[in-house]
Specification:
Elements (H helix, E strand, L loop, with lengths): L15 H18 L13 E6 L5 H12 L3 E5 L12 H9 L5 E6 L4 H6 L5 E7 L5 H15 L6 E5 L6 H12 L3 E5 L15 E3 L2 H5 L4 E4 L15 H8 L3 H4 L7 E3 L12 H4 L7 H27 L1
Parallel strand pairs: 1-2, 1-3, 3-4, 5-6, 5-8, 6-7, 8-9
Bound molecules: phosphoric acid mono(formamide)ester.
């Protein structure tokens, strides 16, 4: 048993063998998910609660499907209609739900560190579904799984992460995971969207797309996170697309078999050309979504096995 975690709060705490354990189990769930009957009983009798304090399509839907396919009792809280609206705090909300004895709590929150804090207050396993600008571990794991399936390995690859690095928890989790697994990462974006101290992560930094993309195996585009900006980061969306939007012309500088990724949701015509996003000969964006269900099934099963061990 190589997965030793009680919670999945970030890539930061995961060792390479634990990342591999999740991806190996997720591969078997990817196969199950393509069958007509998609059920397993790995979480049978367990209760999963999803608490999303921020909007989500992919992550929330896939965690819900993942739990249901594994036989858990799944409840997705409508946080906008909860007592949070009456002023109840995050911790009081978590303690209230914890009193109902869930086994797995999936949490997305706009503040970095909020999910770690919550994990210290509850008895069940907590999965971080994205916290502020900190981490989005299951996104990095599903990205890794997609890369491994497409490239046949998850080491000695050259990966470009492009765009709004400063506001991106996806970039941070991917940077940690790809580095840990022995890949070279290039960060490409305007200096205004490059966080201070990023050099500590051991990535090469570029502000020119054509130069940064030269020969890479994987091009990972990021959404321009307008909701986290208070102006001044980019001159205009049109100018941003001209300099940093991925199109066929810029992609021609990457390796001939380079795959194109995007975590979604996409701003078509801003960070990525719509036709390129839909070009299945290069784009693996839909496969990323598919692998998201499998990775979340694997992560929840591994955490549930550890829960069972601690209660023995
Ligand atoms: N990639 C991602 O986290 O998408 P959602 O915000 O739709 O969950």
């Amino acid at each position: 048993m190589t997965f030793r975690q009680r919670h999945l709060l970030g890539i930061e705490g995961l060792a390479p063998d634990e990342i591999t354990a999740i991806l190996d189990l997720a591969d078997s769930y990817a196969a199950l998910n393509r069958r007509e009957r998609k059920h397993s009983n790995a979480l049978s009798g367990l209760t999963q609660i999803n608490m999303f304090f921020e909007t989500s399509t992919r992550t929330q839907a896939s965690f819900e499907l993942a739990g249901k396919r594994l036989g858990a009792d799944v409840m997705s809280m409508a946080m906008q209609a909860s007592s949070v609206r009456k002023g109840e705090t995050l911790i009081d909300t978590a303690l209230t739900l914890n009193a109902m004895n869930p086994d797995l709590l999936v949490v997305r929150h706009p503040h970095s560190g909020a999910v770690d804090l919550l994990a210290q207050k509850v008895n069940c396993a907590v999965l971080n579904a994205g916290d502020g600008q900190h981490e989005h571990p299951t996104q990095a794991l599903l990205d890794a799984m997609t890369i491994r399936r497409r490239k046949g390995r998850l080491h000695r690859l050259s990966v470009a992460i492009c765009g709004d690095i400063a506001h991106s928890r996806v970039a941070r989790s991917n940077l940690l995971l790809l580095g840990r697994m022995g890949n070279r990462v290039r960060l490409i974006g305007p200096p205004t969207l490059m966080p201070a101290g990023i050099a500590e992560f051991g990535a090469e930094v570029f502000d020119d797309m054509r130069e940064g993309l030269k020969g890479v195996d994987v091009v990972m585009m990021l959404r321009l996170q307008k909701e986290r900006m208070d102006g001044g980061f980019v001159p205009s969306e049109r100018e941003y697309h001209h300099r940093y939007g991925l199109d066929a012309d810029k992609l021609a500088h990457a390796g001939p078999d380079a795959i194109v990724m995007h975590p979604g949701p996409m701003n078509r015509g801003v960070e990525i050309d719509g036709a390129l996003a839909d070009d299945l000969s290069r784009s693996v964006i839909q496969e990323q979504v598919e692998m998201g269900v499998a990775v979340r099934m694997a992560a929840m099963e591994l955490l549930a096995r550890n829960l069972a061990k601690t209660s023995e």
